[in-house]
Task: inverse folding
């Protein structure tokens, strides 16, 4: 039992503990709450504006759960057709599914229904966007390194599940736009060799569209995927809490400590305020920006497709793969292999897996098994930063391909020209983005080197006694110089001599040769600007007459 100060009554005996104290003692004796709180509530977290992206993801997910629970009270996931007799006059007498009818009823007849629907949809878009930006922040700063590789995979899995959850979610209203998306997914499934038709019949309960797909998507969207994501988020936060947060280099910061604010009360108060800020912004977006007006789009019919039908942005690049792929197909032995759909359908997860596997490839190339708690500045890891920008540029190019008809109509361009542009850019833009980003990183490294050695430009011009004009530089503080020079510069891995002292040729495995080549390409000569040394700094400031 925990120690406490005991008050004594008039008879000299201690007063009995209050009811709240008895409950706290009971809980502490069985759950160890006091001990856990004492050790964890004062845990220190670093503070940086980029860390808010992860919080936006978390708060958007909580808002999705809250609004989603509310929507399930009114939505009817049924593919049964009924005649619409609601309050929206243009649809009077039209045959629609119960799913579509209940969605229109939520928007038109339920008090606050349209607002909640739109907050839910906007929160989904922000959630996926926040995850992508958060993962890129982790990627560019090297926060995925040991001991956080598992957390990186948790985040990548959450991103993939978020894409699938979004697909299943916007397919539920059964309007013309969402039905077109389901048709798109069914076509991709049919392209799978041998088993594609069987999978389609199993998922749709027969011929497309059937009556089973909406209830099945509802169960997956409301129960299965959110449950898995909730478990992954909890595991992700536990590992963040256990491993502590990464921090950027600075005075007093090292791999063994954390400089920041305690979790309670400062971080909790800031997190609470930020949650309501995110909720407020999403509420404003839901109130003033119309999204997915199902009443205007109309119910889905298999023989119709809406002009300018586009998926949500996070699936645009997968559609771009299919839109720009040539319509190749192979007919053999009575079967048709639709390469124009199957190859993009297979490329989609492969492109995503490249970014998931990179941390392990980098660890293998560098053979670095140390723990890292100091985040890199992106400019100081040019190979990694350039690879990330190349991946994002590919993502952007495919987004253009996914909306080629919109680009054509809005900018009065030829859709064929846009398609060929995306086909060429698919192969040309990522290497170009890699090279340009690499040069920018090296340029920023040179600027940091000059700033450390010579100081910051002040804009003041001074004339020296012998007539020369120079700009006066303001020296950096010791803390600023430390921040700019604290990063490591990896040494490329070498396989060593291929012939030993006795003239015997040493066998080097192919994997080791590949590791050495990749290491030289990433960290060899010319890939980094050497950091300034103390001797160079003393030489510059040795009284040569220049400020």
Result:
């Amino acid at each position: 039992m925990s120690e406490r100060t005991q008050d004594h009554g008039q008879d000299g005996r201690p007063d009995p503990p209050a009811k709240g104290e008895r409950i706290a003692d009971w809980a502490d004796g069985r759950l160890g709450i006091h001990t856990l709180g004492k050790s964890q509530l004062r845990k220190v977290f670093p503070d940086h504006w980029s860390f808010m992206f992860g919080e936006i993801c978390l708060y958007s997910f909580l808002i999705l759960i809250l609004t989603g629970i509310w929507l399930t009270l009114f939505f009817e996931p049924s593919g049964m057709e009924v005649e619409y007799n609601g309050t929206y006059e243009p649809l009077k007498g039209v045959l629609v599914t119960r799913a579509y009818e209940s969605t229109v009823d939520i928007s038109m007849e339920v008090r606050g229904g349209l607002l909640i629907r739109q907050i839910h949809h906007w929160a989904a878009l922000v959630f996926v966007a926040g995850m992508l930006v958060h993962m890129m922040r982790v990627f560019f700063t090297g926060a995925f390194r040991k001991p956080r590789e598992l957390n990186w995979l948790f985040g990548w899995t959450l991103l993939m599940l978020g894409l699938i959850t979004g697909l299943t979610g916007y397919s539920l209203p059964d309007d013309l736009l969402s039905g077109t998306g389901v048709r798109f997914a069914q076509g991709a499934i049919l392209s799978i060799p041998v088993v594609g038709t069987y999978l389609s019949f199993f998922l749709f309960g027969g011929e497309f569209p059937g009556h089973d797909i909406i209830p099945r998507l509802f169960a997956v969207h409301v129960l299965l995927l959110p449950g898995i994501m909730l478990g992954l988020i909890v595991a992700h936060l536990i590992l963040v809490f256990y491993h502590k947060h990464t921090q950027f280099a600075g005075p007093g910061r090292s791999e063994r400590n954390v400089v920041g604010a305690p979790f309670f009360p400062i971080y909790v108060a800031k997190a609470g305020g930020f949650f309501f800020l995110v909720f407020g912004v999403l509420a404003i977006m839901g109130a003033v920006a119309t999204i997915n007006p199902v009443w205007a789009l109309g119910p889905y019919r298999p023989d119709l497709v809406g002009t300018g039908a586009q998926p949500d942005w996070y699936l645009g690049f997968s559609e771009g793969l299919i839109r720009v792929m040539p319509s190749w197909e192979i007919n053999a032995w009575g079967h048709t292999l639709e390469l124009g759909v199957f190859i993009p359908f297979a490329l989609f997860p492969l492109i995503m897996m490249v970014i998931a596997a990179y941390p392990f490839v980098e660890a293998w190339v560098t053979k670095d098994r140390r723990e890292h708690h100091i985040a890199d500045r992106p400019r100081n890891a040019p190979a990694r930063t350039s690879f990330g920008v190349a991946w994002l540029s590919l993502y952007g190019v495919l987004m253009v391909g996914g909306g080629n008809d919109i680009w054509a109509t809005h900018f009065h361009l030829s859709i064929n020209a846009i398609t060929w542009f995306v086909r060429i850019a698919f192969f040309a833009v990522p290497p170009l983005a890699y090279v340009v980003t690499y040069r920018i990183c090296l340029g920023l490294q040179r600027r940091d080197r000059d700033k450390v050695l010579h100081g910051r430009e002040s804009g003041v011009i001074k004339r020296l006694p012998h007539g020369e004009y120079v700009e006066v530089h303001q020296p950096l503080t010791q803390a600023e110089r430390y921040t700019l020079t604290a990063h490591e510069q990896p040494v490329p891995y070498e396989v060593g001599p291929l012939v030993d002292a006795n003239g015997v040729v040493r066998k080097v495995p192919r994997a080791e040769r590949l590791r050495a080549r990749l290491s030289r390409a990433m960290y060899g000569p010319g890939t980094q600007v050497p950091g300034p040394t103390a001797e160079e700094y003393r030489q510059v400031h040795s009284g040569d007459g220049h400020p």
Notes: DSSP finds 19 helices and ten strands in the chain. The CA atoms of residues 397 and 422 lie 6 Å apart. The domain at 41-357 is CATH 1.20.810.10 (Cytochrome Bc1 Complex; Chain C). Strands lie at 44-45, 81-83, 95-97, 247-248, 261-262, 330-332, 335-337, 374-375, 456-463, 469-474.
